[in-house]
Known about the structure:
By secondary structure, the protein is mainly α.
Amino acid sequence: xxxxxxxxxxxxxxxxxxxxxxxxxxxxxxxxxxxxxxxxxxxxxxxxxxxxxxxxxxxxxxxxxxxxxxxxxxxxxxxxxxxxxxxxxxxxxxxxxxxxxxxxxxxxxxxxxxxxxxxxxxxxxxxxxxxxxxxxxxxxxxxxxxxxxxxxxxxxxxxxxxxxxxxxxxxxxxxxxxxxxxxxxxxxxxxxxxxxxxxxxxxxxxxxxxxxxxxxxxxxxxxxxxxxxxxxxxxxxxxxxxxxxxxxxxxxxxxxxxxxxxxxxxxxxxxxxxxxxxxxxxxxxxxxxxxxxxxxxxxxxx
Length: 302
């Protein structure tokens, strides 16, 4: 059933991953609560079929109608995401109070099977263990016990068939003890879960901080390694140019480490950052291009 509701409401889920995950969890819990309504209804029908009690048409109408009405409202709130605008988006306390109110119908209508009906309340109270604080739990218990007491008073005043005051007080006391135990134990579990959640958040923040620091160190190490490579390359070039360079005494070619003779500008360009722009000096101009040199000289003399 949880998967069924999830598929129906998938299109209206919040886009934020964290909110979406929380809303899915609430839908699963609502589906479980709805299953409990169905089981309690089936058990109530079985009780009447076995002759352990009887409910008239008005009581059946109230019982079925309240169950459908309440769950329709809760389903609408989850479907439209309107529950996210409420102080408690899980609607845990509201659902528990409503289920208790709904259960008052068979609790009053089936006095002979009242112990069985009281057992139906226990699954509903288990839903609050992971959500409600002890104070909230005690508030719900007080409300349920108040409703139960009003049922007993009404049955006593109306002289309900099969009503035995000592027996009803005994059931009331036992039921109250069970609910108060649920409240204290549920409050302990809820508080423990809350503290565990806070510790997990602290651990998560610490892990994120460590991850950021590790990434920063990794980036710094990468930059450091790149700088070392650049420095080694520069140092290698400086060593090559500062060493003893074999140069031809005639053509001025330089011999490299592999034994090849290179033009001096080619060698310097390959082993340094120097760039060359070719020109001609006056001596070479006079030697190789005397006609240009003499003409320029005559022009300058005149």
